[in-house]
Amino acid sequence: MAGAAKKKFEFKKWHGIAFLLVLFDIIAVTASYFLALLFRFDFKYSDIGDYLGRWMRFAPIYAVICVVIFVIAKLYRSLWTFASFVELARLVFSNIAASLLHLLIIPLFGKMPISYFIIGFVIQFTLTTAVRFAYRFVSLLQKHQKDAAVDRSGYKNVMLVGAGSAGQMILRDINNTSSLGEKVACFIDDDVNKHGRYIDGVIVAGGRHDIFDAVKKYKIDNIYIAIPSASSEDRRDIINICNETGCKLKNLPGMFQIINERVTLSNMKDVAIEDLLGRESIALKMDNVYDFISGKTVLVTGGGGSIGSELCRQVANHSPKQLIIFDIYENNAYDIQLELKNTHPELDMVVLIGSVRDSRRIFGVFEKYKPDIVYHAAAHKHVPLMEDSPCEAIKNNAIGTYKTAYAAMLYGCKHFVLISTDKAVNPTNVMGASKRLCEMIIQTFNALIKEGRADEIPQLFTHSGIENADKTGDKSIFQNIETEFVAVRFGNVLGSNGSVIPIFKKQIASGGPVTVTHPDIVRYFMSIPEAVSLVMQAGTYAKGGEIFVLDMGEPVKIDDLARNLIKLSGFKPDVDIKIDYTGLRPGEKLMEEKLMAEEGLRTTESKRIFIGNPIDFDRDEFVKKLRSLMILAYKNKESEIRSKIMEIVSTYHPANN
To answer: Please, which residues have CB within 8 angstroms of residue 333's CB and are 6 or more apart in sequence?
Structure first.
């Protein structure tokens, strides 16, 4: 900038070091080729003859050439304390460039022997490299002596699983931080070519099947698993083996979490129960999801819950025009509101309190905000509680879904995605049956809209005509309806409110016992982000009327889950923490199913997401019976409600536990 004062030169320590290096280089490059002549003539100075004069005339010019090249290559500005391959490469190319110029220019002063060029280059490269790396070598030698002097007798012994680059970086980090009180005793790696060999003085003791022997031989206290590129199945198997040793476990996240980062011990995380599921997360086409959500107004009902709040987070990441969070519980809604205000200050967000059972409230929300996309996550989901309050399950889940879907249809919503559950398949409890009713509701809406019969979908309400949507009576409100209704069905979600994992953790923290309903009970599991990813992807695949199903892998025994969680907490099952079997709860079955047998499966673009072919049912008869069911629910006729559900949901067979 004109008139700006020039920055005053300030002499720094590295300037002095650079000046000394320049002097050394001038002496080194000059002496290198003189020594080359001496070597060429067996150190008989008198035999050098005219070659000496040619060298003396060119030497000052060559010294200047070398200094200029070294300046261009930044060899006087590098921190040689941390010299690495980059600095070495610069030295190599700089010396080659200088020597080539030497080869081209000195013939102007007279012919020189071929050996003169070769020997001179070798000596020059050796001298200029040695002086620069000498400081680093001395520093490493001093550090090695210092480390050798440290008494590590009381340190905890660490086993590193994974002798790759990540494992080596963890090793160096531990070695460089004596305050950790740890030392690496051995590596474990499945690559047989590494077995019996050493990395920085630490032996590779064998593969995963040698873990038990290595733990005993090297008296291992902690095991750090550093195999970020391994498959989920391999990582699960190794963690299961390590979990049996009683050692403290830490795990390095997958490659997508540490890419472009230097791996350190701080990257290691405690092994979570999710790591034992052994399933790869769903890979989404995020551009499809972005196009689906970007610039749209999105409503999430039940937006403060476990699934709903994660939906809000992921929607916020995809640039919606507006995000509307709707929940009956103000504390949860307030929590996600504060979080998103902090993480997405640019987000146009509206947080509303209300119930999907309230026709006036839900209609008012749709009329005012006119959402393009609805993720309907609002539901009562606890099986035993709904067995004791079946009318509330019907009011909230079935009728609440019906009212929300009806409002979506009337006010121009383009996509309605219902969050369903595997408990809706051949349900043995009221909660599962109510979610099957929700699926039938959205299938009914979708079918009648496609048939041009939207006006025949009855409006369900418990108050008289003041809530009637068709106020004009000419059915014009039912024209040009394009809403697509779909459902997404998945299993249990790890870490959600009321799920088994938080319950087990509380029981372990209090010293037990851990309560498992049955030793043979099994469930499908997925993480919350994974479940939400499926929901969002389903919207991009939707054509209307589908029930999307996730391939959730192999089911997990709850008993194994409890025992693994006890081990991960540092205790021994049945020794430190007792496991009690309490018996199946009301409405509970040993194994959940993903699809009814008659539904079948169709594939999608994702290998993890499938579509169940809809089961046909009499939709006109269904909506008539649904009204009767609603009346029973609002009259709290608990003695009659189950038989009415069985009449409507043919696959519902209440369990007598």
So the answer is: 303, 304, 325, 327, 351, 352, 353
Question: What is the fold, at CATH topology level, of the domain defined by 156-271?
Answer: Rossmann fold (3.40.50)
Q: What is the pLDDT of residue 4?
A: 46
Token pair of 541 as six digits? 């695949």
Q: Which of 194, 296, 423, 644 is catalytic?
A: 423
491-550 tens-digit pLDDT: 777 766 667 878 888 888 888 899 998 888 888 777 788 778 878 887 788 787 888 887
Question: What is the bridge-based pairing of β-strands 182-188 and 156-161?
Answer: parallel
Token digits of residue 526: 């997925």
Q: C-alpha 144: how far from its chain's center?
A: 38
Q: How many Cβ atoms sit within 10 Å of the Cβ of residue 103?
A: 15
- 285 flagged as catalytic: no
> Distance between CA 367 and CA 407 in Å, rounded?
8
**Of 145, 156, 149, 136, nearest in space to 265 by CA:** 156
Domain 286-461+478-493+525-551+596-648 superfamily per CATH: NAD(P)-binding Rossmann-like Domain (3.40.50.720)
pLDDT band at 281 (very low <50, low <70, confident <90, very high): low
Q: 379-422 pLDDT, tens per residue?
A: 998 888 999 999 999 999 999 999 999 999 999 999 999 999 88
- Rounded-to-10 torsion of CA 8, 13, 14, 16: 90
Closest CA to 58 of 123, 108, 113: 108
Cα–Cα distance for residue pair 160/245, rounded to 1 Å: 14
Residue 582 backbone dihedrals phi, psi, to 5 degrees: -100, -10
- Using an 8 Å Cβ cutoff, are 629 and 647 in contact? no
Find the angle CA(72)-CA(73)-CA(76) to the nearest 5 degrees. Answer: 90
- Give the number of other Cβ atoms within 10 Å of residue 284's Cβ: 18
